[in-house]
Amino acid sequence: MIVAGPGTGKTLTLTHRIAWLVMHRLVSPDRILAITFTNKAAQEMTQRLGFLKSGTKYFPKVTTFHSFCFEVLSEYLFNTKKETISILDDDDRKLMIKEAIKRAEKAGIKIEQKEDRIISGITTARQLLKYPEQVEDDETRAVYTLYSDMMEKQGSVDFEDIIFKTVKIFEEESQILDMYREKFLHVFIDEYQDVNYGQYMLVKLLCTPDSSHEEAEEKKVSICAIGDPDQSIYGFRGSDTVFFKSFETDFPGARVINLVKNYRSADTILDVSYQIIRDCGETVSKERIFSGIEGKKTIRIIELPTERAEAKKIAQTIENMIGGTGYHAKDTGWINEDDITQEAEKSFSDFAVLYRTGAQAKIISETLMKYGIPFQTVSRESIFSKKGVNEFISFFKLATGFGAFTDLERLSKFLKPGPGKAALNAFKEWILKNDFTLNEAMDKAVRFPIKGIKRDSQKKVFGFLNNFIKHKNEIDNKPVKQVLFHLAENSAFSDIFDENSEAGEIYTDLLMFSRKFEKSVKEFLSALALQSDTDAYDENVEKVSLMTMHASKGLEFPVVFIAGCEEGYIPYMREGAETNINEERRLFYVGITRAKEEVLLTSAKKRRIFGKLIDREPSRFIKDIEEDLKSMEEHKARKKKKETSQVQLKLF
Q: How far is the C-alpha of 311 from the C-alpha of 26, rounded, in Å?
């Protein structure tokens, strides 16, 4: 176990140990499995291990938990000759659970709980590897049962399902588990503090030999886990530091190594972050991290009147730090030349603006846009919420045989003429009643009458389904990129991508992204579905990055703003929900330690939330920072420059 604080070189340490095993212990690279939490982290590790590719056809398996489990599931289904599976993302999962709630109510089951609570209950049950019948709450159990049944019939899985089903296969099919144990002799787990119960059980199964085997000791798999309990921030995904703390018990004889030298942040930033985390109870690291990097002696804490003033101050400060380039800032009086910092050699990509909730991004992005400051919003939602993007992916899934009910519903509202709600519901009832998969149903519906559906409705359904079926033969066996291009150019989406520049750019990105998947539609769609917010970050663009503190995990920037440092946001408090103060502390700690040179904490005295203007108080966490490390600033309205009367000069 390697306990590694922020900026201490976790990825470098893992990759060096892998390289050492290959070069000095002569371990074949294909016997090594490295599991991370994000595609970005997996790609970074793969790049650093690139030198191992020379002279050998083997390479370590570097992947994420979900990608690894999806491979196991897909191979298992292929070998058992069962239908292939597709992954539902969060949006599709919510739509499917809504459908399950409707079906439960239609069956006479009274559902009084809010939809979000039901979704949370099902998610938690799957994270804890519980089947529907093991759930105590009657309403959640009823919806969970129907939801599981619908998913099974449609050949779909959600994020929790992927881990759940893989663990169950390993528990019930010992020969399959043994195959993976023998295949991977060395297992590396990144960010071990973020594992939930399902992921923990997966690791234990992979790395703990069956004691019933006489050669159990020989079958023992070596495990190297790395992480930092002070950065455990995914409680809502079921992560728990108890698994981190039990590592030495789970794997007797394990060595524990502490990395305490930070190579990223100035010492002031580390001093501030320590004061935030030191009251976090038993999760605090045994040793303080240090860097020896000199920097500013204080961090700036700026209180503004409103959220709009806060956003403007952030934009103005960025302009000052890069030298006032946007919209002739100095000429217009938008910034003072005296305010421009002496070291104004920064570029836009050196800045990140972090916040607790995605809703905070709206005003900040509007303000940056107003003043000509380029930015990227680092979130999966910001990509797929663009008009036409999610719908196009649903179109692609249905045309390639990987669609689900949710894709039909999404497109029925988007493509005109659609089948209509009544006709689509009747079609779905017919599918569920006959236990058809969606592909079977689509094939039958265009060849035979659908029993129980009026003739006019059948015509509408037929016309709608034909949109997808007519493309199937034309795209069969083509590379993914060509399939995307064909579907876009031969549908209404061509005009949508031409008219909407943002959606058009994302379509172009999809074409680029698809090139690495050749003809594997399943791999392309699974990679797309399993992308996290962090994976949406593009480090190659000259733009300010806007993201939640959760999405910033694993990233670093010279200058970091944390907006909304107020009670209610930091720590985040939601009416009717319990707040885990320690996890909120750890999240703030993660945000601060993304900075290399400077941290600026901003807040508003009044903020409009759900349409109401509410008084706000500075975050309790700011009070934990010693006074000599804080540079407090209060907003002072700047007087506009008087316009001098202009007199036309004489030429002679």
A: 55
Distance CA 485, CA 507 (A): 9
Main-chain dihedrals φ then ψ at residue 121, nearest 5 degrees: -65, -40
Q: Please name the residues in contact with 611: beta carbons below 8 A apart, sequence gap of 6 or more.
A: none
Helix axes 389-399, 405-414, angle to 10 degrees: 130
The residue with tokens 């309790």 is 620
Residue pLDDT, tens place only, 306-338 = 999 999 999 999 999 998 665 445 555 555 555
Q: Checking DSSP bridges between strand 61-64 and strand 544-548, what pairing results, if any?
A: unpaired
Contacts of 16 (CB under 8 A, 6+ apart): none
Question: What is the per-residue pLDDT across 496-510, written as a single tens digit (0 to 9) for each?
Answer: 898 888 889 899 989
The runs of H, that is alpha helices, within 224-266 are 242-245, 247-250
Pairwise CA distance, residues 141 & 28, whole Å: 47
Mean pLDDT, range 395-417, rounded to an integer: 86
The predicted pLDDT at position 643 comes to 47
According to DSSP, the residues that pair with 62 across neighbouring strands are 34
Q: If we measure between CA atoms, which residue out of 164, 153, 85 comes closest to residue 122? A: 164
Q: How many Cα atoms occupy the beta-carbon half-sphere of 74 within 13 Å? A: 14
**What residue has token string 């590396």?**
188
Say how far apart CA 203 and CA 265 lie, in whole Å.
Answer: 32
Secondary structure class of 458 (helix, strand, coil): helix
What is each CA distance from 1 to 17, 106, 252, in whole angstroms? Answer: 12, 52, 11
Instruction: Name the 3-class secondary structure at 416.
Output: coil
Give the span between the Cα atoms of 90 and 381, in whole angstroms. 10
pLDDT of residue 328: 44
Here the tokens at position 419 are 């089948």
Q: Which two tokens stand for residue 150?
A: 């619908």
Q: Is the pLDDT assigned to residue 619 strictly greater than 80?
A: yes
Q: What is the mean pLDDT of residues 207-225?
A: 67
What is the residue type of 94?
K
Helix axes 501-514, 480-489, angle to 10 degrees: 150
Contact 468, 412 (CB under 8 A): no
Q: Which residue has the tokens 């599709």?
A: 92
pLDDT of residue 344: 57
Could you give the CA distance from residue 210 to residue 173 in angstroms, rounded to a whole number?
13
- State how far the Cα of 176 lies from the Cα of 104, in Å rounded to an integer: 36
550: exposed, middle or buried (C-beta count within 10 Å: 0-12, 13-18, 19+)? buried
Q: Which residue has the tokens 């043994």?
A: 178
Distance in angstroms (rounded) separating the CA atoms of residues 348 and 560: 12
Instruction: Read off the tokens for 388.
Output: 């036409």
Q: Distances from the Cα of 63 to the Cαs of 39, 108, 176, 503, in angstroms? A: 7, 44, 19, 29
CA distance readout (Å), 477 to 374, 380, 514, 521, 540: 40, 29, 15, 10, 33
Instruction: Name every residue whose Cβ is closer than 8 Å to that of residue 244 and which is 6 or more positions away in sequence.
Output: 192, 193, 195, 227, 229, 232
Q: Quote the distance between the C-alpha of residue 643 and its chain's center.
A: 49
- The type of residue at 575 is E
Phi, psi of 48 (to 5 degrees): -70, -25
Whether the pLDDT of residue 36 is over 50: the answer is yes
Strand partners, 353: 546, 561
